[in-house]
Specification:
The protein has about 260 residues and is mainly alpha-helical. It contains 13 helices and no strands. The protein has two domains: about 170 residues, Actin-binding Protein, T-fimbrin, domain 1; about 55 residues, no CATH class. InterPro entries: CH_dom, CH_dom_sf, DBL_dom_sf, DH_dom. GO terms for molecular function: guanyl-nucleotide exchange factor activity.
Length: about 260
């Protein structure tokens, strides 16, 4: 049985060795630090692409460089992308997956760590890195610990200190449900889910506010597709296996 207080530390080292953690690793001093960094799902998507390049379309990931932008809508999108990759690319059983709220709401962060451990033991991941814990399978990881009991409060305290604007984006349950209803209306039709890109292309603004929103999003979308996506695909991803994390951070500063 793996001691729970060591599991999150092993996960941190494993993520660093996978080169999805750069300068963030120096900020991970407690379990709550790791939970806060993983909460938006961005690093998890990068992790999946590390073991199976292109299994998650980069243009579908909502990049959020600021803590204040961690809305449920964006984070849930990224978490779903990661979970879908675990199902379809890494063939991890449904019973081993966590729920979105286990990570975003931190209802069961230990379950998140167990999934990362399970992912590390898949064939694709083991070709790149040694799994964790190396001494046993994910099923032998401790299933409960008081270490996680106050995790949500600790993470929210950390994020509140990092940005004075967090209160604007700290949606309650009612607001979260409204966001998901908006998402379903825009992105999902009555029969099948369509891509957010196609949904936005068909969006017709009907007010001055919506025209402003569309102009802003169109500008950002073009920037991502024509510049950032090219940099990630042609330079960042190939070089991350050749350069040290420090060199990657120096060259690609502000991209991740």
């Amino acid at each position: 049985m793996v001691r729970p207080e060591l599991l999150w530390q092993e996960a941190t080292h494993w993520l660093y060795n996978a080169r999805v953690l750069g300068e963030e690793k120096s900020r991970i001093l407690r379990l709550s630090d790791l939970a806060a960094i993983l909460r938006d799902g961005i690093l998890l998507c990068r992790l999946a692409n590390t073991f199976s390049y292109g299994c998650i379309d980069q243009t579908h990931i909502f990049l959020q460089p600021q803590q204040s932008q961690k809305s449920r809508f964006s984070c849930s999108n990224n978490i779903r992308l990661f979970l879908d990759a675990c199902r379809t690319t890494f063939h991890i059983p449904e019973s081993e997956l966590f729920e979105e709220n286990d990570l975003y709401d931190l209802d069961d962060f230990e379950r998140v760590l167990r999934l990362l451990s399970h992912l590390s033991h898949t064939d694709k991941a083991k070709k790149v890195l040694r799994p964790f814990p190396a001494v046993c399978s994910p099923s032998h990881v401790s299933e409960h610990s008081d270490l996680y009991s106050n995790l949500r409060d600790e993470v929210e305290a950390v994020e509140e200190k990092e940005s004075i604007y967090d209160a604007v984006y700290n949606y309650g349950k009612e607001e979260s449900e409204k966001e998901m209803q908006i998402y379903d209306t825009i992105v999902v039709n009555s029969n099948a889910r369509i891509s957010s890109k196609d949904a936005w292309a068909n969006f017709k603004p009907s007010s001055q506010r919506e025209h402003c929103i569309k102009e802003l999003l169109d500008t950002e979308t073009n920037y991502v597709e024509n510049a950032l996506d090219m940099i990630l695909a042609k330079f960042y991803d190939p070089l991350r296996f050749l350069l040290s994390p420090e060199d990657m951070e120096a060259i690609f500063i502000n991209i991740y």
